[in-house]
Amino acid sequence: MLVIDGVTMLTEFDEFAYHEMISHVPLMVHPKPSRVLVIGGGDGGVVREVLKHQEVESVHLCEIDEDVVNVCREHLPSRLGHWMIRGLKIFYEDGAKFAANHPGSYEVIIVDSTDPFGPGQVLFQKPFFLSMKKALTRQGIAVTQCESIYLHRQVIEGVFSFARKLYPVAGYYFTVVPTYPSGLIGFSFCSLGRDPIKDIDEARAKKLKGLRYYSPEIHRGAFALPRFASGFIGGPSRG
After folding, report:
1. Which residues pair with 89 in a beta bridge?
2. What's the first-to-final CA gap in the chain, in angstroms?
3. What is the pTM of this model?
4. What DSSP string runs through the chain?
5. Are 24 and 187 in contact (CB under 8 A)?
6. Tens digits of per-residue pLDDT, 145-191?
7. What pLDDT, on the 0 to 100 scale, is given for residue 52?
8. Which of 29, 33, 121, 227 has the smallest number of CB atoms closer than 10 Å to its CB?
9. Residue 127 and residue 125: Cα distance in Å, rounded?
10. Measured between alpha carbons, how far is 98 from 7 in angstroms, rounded to an integer?
């Protein structure tokens, strides 16, 4: 497992449920995700999943802490083969600033962040979501880690209070990860036009190899929220 500042980031037992869902949901909705930006994700799990897509030509990984990458290279062997593959460039910078400095550069942005405390707090705020929007191309999609519906209602409500105003399409979906508090972890889906349910490319999904969690059926179902959560989040909607 990987632990940072006393908080468990992942375990090899169930990380696939998180990394597959944060990665393949946006990539299966975009018609040609050739350029992808991963913010955070220094453990390499998102990079591993993104590079399963032949449509991806380049991946920029922006990780603020170089030690995370170095430690995971050494101690998480399941990811070692994914660091020197086609089109991958690593930048050790602040992710919010990096996005702001690359307007119109990416079809998909995936934010594999820590919780909204310390350096990760800015990634849950309106200026960063605006920077992501500007960094996307015309049909771009941004997905961010967005906490648990059971434990972090205020965080999720805060994100969607501005995400629905900034993006034409915004929604929340989740995955099941026993390691994380409450066993559920969710994501914000922010799109400049693509619908997360109607625009799934099922033909491409069937070609992917080595999946343990993601499927088109799981993809659609992940946006169906319990009544208590849909009451304060709502379903995928156009702003």
Report:
1. 60
2. 39
3. 0.96
4. -EEETTEEEE-TTTHHHHHHHHHHHHHHHSS---EEEEEE-TTSHHHHHHTT-TT--EEEEE-S-HHHHHHHHHH-GGGGGGSSSTTEEEE-S-HHHHHHT-TT-EEEEEEE---SSGGGGGGGSHHHHHHHHHHEEEEEEEEEE---TTT-HHHHHHHHHHHHHHSSEEEEEEEE-TTSGGGEEEEEEEESS--TTTT--HHHHHH--S-SS--HHHHHHTT---HHHHTTS-SSEE-
5. no
6. 999 999 999 999 999 999 999 999 999 999 999 999 999 999 999 99
7. 93
8. 227
9. 6
10. 25
Mean pLDDT across the chain, nearest whole number? 93
77-118 per-position pLDDT tens digit: 665 455 556 679 999 999 999 999 999 999 999 999 988 888
Contact 72, 103 (CB under 8 A): no
Tokens 């996005």 -> residue: 99
Which residues are CB-neighbours of 33 under 8 A, at least 6 positions away? 26, 27, 53, 55, 56, 107, 108, 141
Q: How far apart are CA 225 and CA 55, in angstroms?
A: 30
Q: What is the gyration radius of the CA atoms in the chain, in angstroms?
A: 16
Q: How confident is the model at residue 130 (pLDDT cuts 50, 70, 90)?
A: very high
